[in-house]
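We were asked to recover a plausible sequence for a given structure. The inputs and outputs are reproduced exactly as logged, with field labels preserved.

PROBLEM: sequence recovery
POSITIONS: 406
GIVEN STRUCTURE:
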């Protein structure tokens, strides 16, 4: 407390508990879903939050702790069948795990999104039985880490323009090209890579670490998502064994189906990030005094709190609805675009408002909101930018694609 303590209003812990009770969706969750959420929350409290600022500052990610999401919590590929290391939990439970991880930091949810949605999902969906058994159990336990290479230096929002090729030469399949901005590229044991074949069709394959001609290098100038590994991948005449190519992926639709999985997790994850920003700001508003009273007593600050609280409540309800639709096999990718776009936008707004409420302390790494605000710039951009999701929704509403000017 500063500037003449004068306690009025709730104790900070009480205020946070009140807010959590008000936005609670517990009565709409199954017992197993609540249990998984609470288990992940305890893991984050104990293993993520204490070192989050340190890792953000040093631009490091504690992969030894990250692997425990698989070995200890069983989260990697958790919606998949048990035969492959999953536990067939509901998509709502999976969403809640994403939420709690992103409460700790976006890099943690990123690890889960990539491993589950972008690496295990395509191996399961487009791979042969032999490919599933070869890689999925190890990925589920966190023994293996995976990455997903779609984006290239010249091809981001428009993945159909990719230049990486998987072409037949002297009877062998040869991969050439480069992928940029790839989460976990340098630490991955297996890379799911998308490339065009001789017919120009998009194919997917798994490239293992150490394969001759495959190299990876980290991005070194990142001011966002610092506690997450982001890399460039290079493929120089890489000979790809036939048994590493997915038999059931033959078009751009295949990687886009993977993106649906990861975007769904982000929709939930963003609610966790927003909760963290809101709760930090609420506590601070009851502790920080100016003009003789807590700043939380000023109408302008209450307006910010009310905005954040309302948006989080709405975002949660949409995520829950999307999860139930996904569990029922009725979700359309437009629902996922709505949720990714809306919830990341609102989390970014919440982080900015929370930062404003911290005044100068809001730009300091000593206080918690800045790293969430910085991380959300990446979340706003990856897995389809806010603009891209606007156009996907626009096309679903009008039947007219606005992606191309000609
Ligand atoms: P378009 O002609 O619309 O579609 C091509 C084919 O794909 C089908 N399709 C989808 N299928 C499943 N799910 C979806 N969401 C789909 N969207 C489209 C479509 O029906 C079509 O099928 P067919 O059979 O007719 O061929 O494609 P377009 O070239 O016009 O491009 C538009 C599109 C959809 C690709 C673009 O809107 C888009 O989504 N761009 C964003 C790219 C992106 O999100 N990249 C993400 C890279 S991975 C990443 O960022 C990981 S971050 C990881 C972390 O969390 O750390
Ligand atoms: P561009 O596509 O060049 O877009 C530039 C700007 O133009 C944006 O504002 C965009 O919204 C706008 N724009 C583009 N097209 C249109 C249009 N038709 N109409 C209107 N506006 C448009 N990719 C992977 O494959 N795997 C990963 O693991 C991965 N991890 C990432 C991790 C981080 C930290 C980051 C930042 C990115 C990651 N990405 C990954 C890449 C990410 O998916 C791309 O950055 C994203 O798809 C946008 O592509 P781009 O950066 O090339 O931007």
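RECOVERED SEQUENCE:
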């Amino acid at each position: 407390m500063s500037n003449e303590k004068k306690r009025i209003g709730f104790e900070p812990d009480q205020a946070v508990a009140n807010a959590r009770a008000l936005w609670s969706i517990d009565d709409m969750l199954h017992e197993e879903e609540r249990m998984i959420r609470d288990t992940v929350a305890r893991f984050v409290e104990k293993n993520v939050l204490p070192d989050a600022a340190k890792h953000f500052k040093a631009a490091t990610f504690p992969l030894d702790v990250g692997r425990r999401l698989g070995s200890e919590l069983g989260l990697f590929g958790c919606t998949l069948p048990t035969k492959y290391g999953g536990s067939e939990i509901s998509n709502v439970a999976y969403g809640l795990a994403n939420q709690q991880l992103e409460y700790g930091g976006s890099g943690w949810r990123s690890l889960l999104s990539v491993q589950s949605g972008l690496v295990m999902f395509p191996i399961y969906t487009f791979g042969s039985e032999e490919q599933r058994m070869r890689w999925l159990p190890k990925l589920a336990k966190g023994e293996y880490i995976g990455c997903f290479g779609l984006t290239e230096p010249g091809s981001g929002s428009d993945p159909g323009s990719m230049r990486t090729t998987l072409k037949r030469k002297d009877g062998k399949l040869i991969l050439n090209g480069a992928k940029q901005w790839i989460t976990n590229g340098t630490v991955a044991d297996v890379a799911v890579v998308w490339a065009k074949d001789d017919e120009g069709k998009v194919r997917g394959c798994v490239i293992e670490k150490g394969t001759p001609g495959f190299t990876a290098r980290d991005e070194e100038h990142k001011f966002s998502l610092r506690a997450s590994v982001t890399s460039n991948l290079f493929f120089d005449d890489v000979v790809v064994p036939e048994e590493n190519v997915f038999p059931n992926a033959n078009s751009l639709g295949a990687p886009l189906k993977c993106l649906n999985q990861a975007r769904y997790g982000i929709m939930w994850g963003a609610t966790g990030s927003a909760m963290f920003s809101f709760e930090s700001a609420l506590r601070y508003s009851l502790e920080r005094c100016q003009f003789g009273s807590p700043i939380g007593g000023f109408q302008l600050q209450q307006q910010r709190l009310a905005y954040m609280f309302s948006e989080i409540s709405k975002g949660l309800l949409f995520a829950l609805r999307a999860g139930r639709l996904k569990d029922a096999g009725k979700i359309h990718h437009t629902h996922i675009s709505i949720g990714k776009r809306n919830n990341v936008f609102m989390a970014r707004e919440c982080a900015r408002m929370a930062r404003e409420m911290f005044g100068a302390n809001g730009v300091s790494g000593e206080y918690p909101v800045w790293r969430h605000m910085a991380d959300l710039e990446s979340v706003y951009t990856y897995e389809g930018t806010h603009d891209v999701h606007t156009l996907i929704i626009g096309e679903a509403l009008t039947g007219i694609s606005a992606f191309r000017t000609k």
